[in-house]
Amino acid sequence: MHVLKRIGMLAMLATLLGGCSSMSQDWHKLWGGKSPAATQADASPELAAAAAQRWLAILDSGNYEAGWKAASPALQAGISQTDWVAQMQTVRAPYGAKTARGDGVLTRRHREGEPFDTLCLRYHTAFVHGTADETVCMASDNGKTWLTKSYSVVPAQ
């Protein structure tokens, strides 16, 4: 998918990037496993965006349990699978099926002292029961494997 780069979105995403907080634990201990949503290739934003799209497709199918399993250990450490599923059923399921998703607007941020890149993408998404803005933060320690670090969905503004 073609990814639009908009520097103007940096300010709006700054708050969301704060949600991609630092981790003090060793990267390989946190991210040791492979995920179906992982991308094995070079460090381009397009590949991170492709991994985000594959992960969003899991959520689009309504399989929130699989979405949690395909996310990073950092996301999993922050919320149990049961709580994740309940949260998705509360905040995402009411929108219904996805009908269209715009190109992601991205920003890249490497936080001082963290051994990985974080890239957040914001999508304007149309659903059967309304529109929403979804933000997916992906992280990679080597530019080859991108895993979902955080996700949010809010009513479109």
Summarize the structure.
This protein has 157 residues and is of the alpha+beta class.
Protein architecture, described:
The chain has 157 residues and is an alpha+beta fold. The protein has one domain: Roll (Nuclear Transport Factor 2, Chain: A), CATH 3.10.450.590. It is built from six helices and six strands, in the order βααααααβββββ. Strands 1, 2, 3, 4, 5 and 6 form a six-stranded mixed sheet that branches. Strand 3 and strand 4 form a beta hairpin. The two termini are 24 Å apart. Mean pLDDT is 76; it is low at 1-43.
SS-derived structural category: alpha+beta
Number of domains: 1
What is the level 1 CATH name?
Alpha Beta
Give the termini separation: 24 Å
Strand content: 25-35%
The portion of residues assigned to helices is 25-40%
Question: Could you name the CATH topology?
Answer: Nuclear Transport Factor 2, Chain: A
Instruction: Give the rounded overall mean pLDDT.
Output: 76
Largest sheet features: 6 strands, mixed
The assigned CATH architecture is: Roll
Q: What Rg is obtained from the alpha carbons, in whole angstroms? A: 15 Å
Count of helices?
6
Stretches with pLDDT under 50, minimum 5 residues: 1-43
Number of strands: 6
Top keywords for this entry?
single chain; 157 residues; alpha+beta; Nuclear Transport Factor 2, Chain: A; 6-stranded mixed beta sheet; 6 helices; 27% strand; disordered N terminus; DUF4019; DUF4019 domain-containing protein; signal
